[in-house]
Specification:
321 residues; alpha/beta; Rossmann fold; 2 domains; seven-stranded mixed beta sheet; five-stranded parallel beta sheet; elongated
């Protein structure tokens, strides 16, 4: 009951439109499912994408937002609740949500967003022809992690020891770590891999990380959900750090380079629109990222005593002062 009540409250918070409907009008329900609280800008980007395609919340569609940080069982309960609401489409944010939804239905269409390896995790048969009830957008890019390392070496030219923070339960964790180990070794550097499975492990992780010159944080729902605490620990330990999404930089992180997540959630609305108009997920290719962004917090750089080279500043899409 608590989860259900919480979900209803959160739906109201994330839905700024009136819930009143025209008498007799057919409402189409869209579920939004995520493990951990999504940055509000991501949900708003999805809502904007739907508005751009002519949908009006409370009149033609209802967006049911559900999220929890209480683990797989609670996430599965919320997925089941969305199915009981007879949603027409589920937008699954991140791999855990996508798997939770897939495990409960093979008929209700699922649009995944920000899933790192949809083929490797068994969500789709192949990117070009998903073959089931799932399609959407992946953030899978093999060389993205090393591009972040390169940015750190430009800001810290004598970087020799790099800490990497990640969640080993993430399906792509092992492959990302392997790529970084090979890449950093080829540059003559050392890598300190630090695994965390929950917020209770953060402080111990930073006792290890602070012996390195910089920190690279892998993309993960757990880390995005607890970004405020992670940013606090990063600042306390005076660690230059790079992240995968701009939301960390907006909140005080030094740098972020990765896919444009708000743009990805706006694009998810295109998939929802096509499915509501009769398209089958099996026939809609999974989209790989094409738009990336570099964000830099100049205030944080100054606090750390870092001078961002002009060559890096010129490439930045967002400078926060």
């Amino acid at each position: 009951m608590f989860l259900r009540a919480l979900a209803i409250v959160l739906t109201l918070l994330f839905t700024p439109f009136a819930a009143e409907t025209q008498v007799g009008a057919k409402l189409q329900r869209i579920g939004f499912l995520r493990s951990g609280q999504p940055p509000p800008v991501w949900v708003k980007a999805l809502q904007q994408g739907l508005r751009d395609r002519g949908y009006v919340e409370g009149k033609s569609i209802v967006l049911e937002v559900r999220f929890t940080d209480k683990g797989p069982e609670a996430l599965s309960e919320l997925a089941a609740e969305l199915l009981r609401l007879n949603v027409d489409v589920i937008v699954a944010s991140g791999t855990p949500a996508a798997l939770a939804a897939r495990n409960l239905t093979r008929t209700v269409p699922i649009v995944v967003v920000g899933v790192n390896d949809p083929v490797g995790t068994g969500l789709v048969r192949e990117l070009s022809r998903p073959g089931g009830n799932i399609t959407g957008l992946t953030n899978q890019t093999p060389d993205l992690a090393m591009k972040r390392v390169q940015l750190l070496t430009e800001v810290i030219p004598k970087l020799a020891r790099l800490a990497v923070l990640g969640n080993p339960t993430h399906p792509a964790y092992a492959s990302q770590v392997k790529t970084l180990e090979t890449g950093v070794r080829s540059l003559g550097g050392q890598l300190e891999v630090i695994a965390v499975r929950g917020p209770n492990e953060f402080e111990a992780a930073f006792k290890i990380a602070r012996t390195s010159q910089a920190l690279l944080q892998l993309d993960d729902v757990l880390l995005t959900t607890h970004r405020a605490r992670l940013l606090e620990l990063t600042a306390q330990n005076r660690l230059p750090a790079i992240y995968g999404s701009r939301e960390f930089v907006d909140a005080g992180g030094l740098m972020a380079y990765g896919v444009n997540y708000p743009d990805m959630y706006r694009s998810a609305a295109t998939y929802v629109d096509k499915i509501l108009k009769g398209a089958k997920p099996a026939d809609l290719p999974v989209e790989q990222p094409t738009k990336f962004e570099l964000a830099i917090n100049l205030k944080t750089a100054k606090a750390l005593g870092l001078t961002i080279p002009p060559s890096v500043l010129l490439r930045a899409d967002h400078l926060i002062e």
